[in-house]
Amino acid sequence: MGFGKHYGLRGRRAAPGQRVVDSVPQPSGPQTTTLAVIGWMGVTAPLVLSGSVNGAVFYGYIQDCVLPTLQPGDILFMDNLSAHKVTGLEELIRSHGAHLSICHLTRLTSTRLNWPGRRSKQSCVASKRERFLI
Q: 3.30.200, 1.20.120, 1.10.10, 3.30.420: which CATH number matches 30-133?
């Protein structure tokens, strides 16, 4: 989860008639992204990248790092990140005998911070067709 600049001054208090003076931390150093598969047997297929992940990078990660570790009948759960919505990804996973299920984050109520951790639930939804194939 990223850190938004607009969250920096929330919840700060000052004496009556005074202003809150504070700064928002800025990223320093190189930005990295960590990808890994977490399963019953532990963490597999770890990969650390410089920068962010787009659809082409994610497809290559699945093809080169994840698929060699999968067994027929395994199920991959992914959230609905835009990098995960790559054309041909589901077909690639199914061609190795595994299944793909997309987890959608649903908010039960609107919260002050709108962070996924507060009053939200995860629901992994498979289409009707997938439910019978898994």
A: 3.30.420
